[in-house]
Amino acid sequence: MAIDKSPEKVDYIANDVAYAVALDSTDKNALISQNIQDYDAVVIAIGEDFEELLLTAVNLIELKIKRIIVRAKGRVNRQILEKLGLKEIFSPEFEVGKVVAERLLNPSIGNFLDLPDGYVITEIKAPKSIIGQTLESIKLRESYNINLVTIRNEVEEVKGNRIVQTQHIKGVPQGDTVIGEHDYIVVFGSAKDIDKFIDINS
User: Is residue 127 part of a domain?
Assistant: First the structure.
């Protein structure tokens, strides 16, 4: 279910969700009228008005929603939400900023996921030095202390009368899997070890 107090926004999203309703989420009775307490999880993604976000969060806490995921625009907002006892807080601007910064520093990096204790899962454009080699010969774990998760391939395909960029996953790669020119290797390891791999092979 999608909720917004703007009828125009509700009309816009209505065809993309199972149910869309226009109501004010700061009104607890309005939420109760939609049986919000029966949902497994609620995401609060109010972007502009932090007071409305807080009031909505308090309503959901009082209604004992099992799982509340909430958006925070900055460090202060995050601290306030944490004081309310909320555990799942996301900051899209911060996450996007980190990705952009990482790509500026390492142009070969695609998407990445920060994990605790200095570990990451990241996509790396296959360096020229490993293209044409098998995974067994590259020895990612033995030589660099990183694990391969999978390989993503980007290719151009003709669809109708136009050329489009498509992506494919090579499943669970084996030792004899050969790295191709348009491959991204998805790896897990410490950020330090992954940076070392990129430096050695760039």
Answer: yes
